[in-house]
């Protein structure tokens, strides 16, 4: 037995010990502090206490890592983590990651991992159907995150509108290509514009209205002006659930302008996309079925461990046109079969079996399980908003999603808001964040955990009320 394999007895013991330590965290997450004490020197000392020239015993090394993560992390799986869409991971997702690590299927070539690739294809088709895409035109690929999925969208839109882009790049263009999104859009759109070489100046951040959605009138004005100036608008990004406030851009209006000006419409539904799984919320995403592509993060509202992001499109040829490369060294077995090699569909080459998390979670909990959880989290979000109002906190955003941006009715300057946030984080009982709504400093709380109940909301409100009086 090679030492890297360990012996069967050692493996059994190490796995049992590891499971026991993980289980004690998973079963009693609520008993932990949510926020760690931030002490960079001490963390660094602990991390570096292992000398790679004198390696430790396996059990000891594993134990140190688990203790370190338990002590020094914001516990996003905690029921009082009211944070940035990071969920408590569902058990099926955790098991999926373990299975993936053992088989380590190579997703680059279909013939290397037929079961894994077909499981991903199935989930791509099924999620496309949930979003309202037609079965025979849905295509897509798993990505490392919403950031990669948004970058994929920019690349697809470029290849769609500039057929020479793959060969001659930006230098072959005669007019300035422009991207449009709301001022509240995720910054990964800016990053994508920088990454592809378009630069930040190619992104028009259209101001939002009172309702925090892209102002359609201003969008139309910008499009008209840019076209008159001789530029080439090519991509419109609508956000279906903004990161800050959960606002949903008016997708039917965006579609209308995209058609009028010849734009690729991309729906960034990284967080909000899960709303299509609940019949009460789905109408808020009306129009998403007309988007040319969609970003959806199953590691947000579908409660999977990072990362499980999807890029979906209703243009079946565009991913190949954008990414396909002919190589000599890749396996050729699948050439004559009706299958696609994922390395011709993705920015990535070697790729992890990310889709298993979604496949397994849907296999075990089904659409019905997700419908219930999404409905439940929405109800808890509504309870949070009600309790905030009843306790003299002013909720500053209006969204059907469980995201609340709020401030004290009387005192809401920058310093007061910041002090309040610091008190909450230092107490370590809850994690909330800060966000500016229409330029006004607010606190932000989001229901990201399927196990969060009214009890945790009552505790958060009591805590906020207390800190406000201090
Ligand atoms: C989270 C988020 C992203 C980025 O996704 P990652 O998975 O963090 O890379 C993009 N857009 C929106 C609207 C998001 O909420």
Short description:
This protein has 470 residues and is of the alpha/beta class.
Task: Lay out the secondary structure.
Elements lengths: L7 H20 L12 H8 L10 H14 L19 H13 L10 H18 L7 E5 L2 H16 L3 H4 L8 E6 L5 H8 L7 E4 L9 H13 L3 E8 L11 H11 L2 E5 L24 E5 L11 E5 L4 H6 L32 H35 L2 E3 L7 E6 L5 H14 L5 E5 L2 E7 L7 H16 L1
Parallel strand pairs: 2-3, 2-4, 4-5, 5-6
Antiparallel strand pairs: 1-7, 6-7, 8-9, 9-11, 10-11
Helix pairs in contact: 1-3, 4-12, 6-8, 12-14
Descriptive account of the structure:
This protein has helices at 8-27, 40-47, 58-71, 91-103, 114-131, 146-161, 165-168, 188-195, 216-228, 251-261, 318-323, 356-390, 414-427, 454-469; strands at residues 139-143, 177-182, 203-206, 232-239, 264-268, 293-297, 309-313, 393-395, 403-408, 433-437, 440-446. It is an alpha/beta fold and 470 residues long. It has a seven-stranded mixed β-sheet with strand order 1-7-6-5-4-2-3, with helices on both faces. It has a four-stranded antiparallel β-sheet with strand order 8-9-11-10, covered by helices on one side. β10 and β11 (440-446) form a beta hairpin. The longest helix has 35 residues, at 356-390. The chain is globular. The mean pLDDT is 96. It binds pyridoxal-5'-phosphate. The site of pyridoxal-5'-phosphate has 14 residues, from α6. Pyridoxal-5'-phosphate binds at residues 85, 145-147, 150, 186, 188, 239, 243, 268, 270-271, 297, 309.
